[in-house]
Amino acid sequence: xxxxxxxxxxxxxxxxxxxxxxxxxxxxxxxxxxxxxxxxxxxxxxxxxxxxxxxxxxxxxxxxxxxxxxxxxxxxxxxxxxxxxxxxxxxxxxxxxxxxxxxxxxxxxxxxxxxxxxxxxxxxx
Length: 125
Hints:
Elements: E1 9-13, E2 24-30, E3 33-42, E4 45-50, E5 75-76, E6 83-84, E7 91-93, E8 103-104, E9 106-109, E10 112-115, E11 121-122
Antiparallel strand pairs: 1-10, 2-3, 2-11, 3-4, 4-8, 5-6, 6-7, 9-10
């Protein structure tokens, strides 16, 4: 999708993403199917991924919107314990080393967080 045609989608206010806190959950269309994604803040950077473990395609939050391990350093899958680096979604421990979560590009502007649609991820209308 050419950058000039991209209409960034409003997701939430910047203050809604607390450092290593509860995620903001949102739905996107992936190849015609509604799937859940989540946005979190880590090291003061907002990132978003599909709520789908790279090991087994299942939701990862251990309670709704809770993705960080006890030390608030890694995103963890509640099913098999795969641990992911928040900055890039790469699995650093568990059953799928080197695999990555599917990222959704975010930007922050004027106190608001937006996500970028792509050929793969589209807004739900």
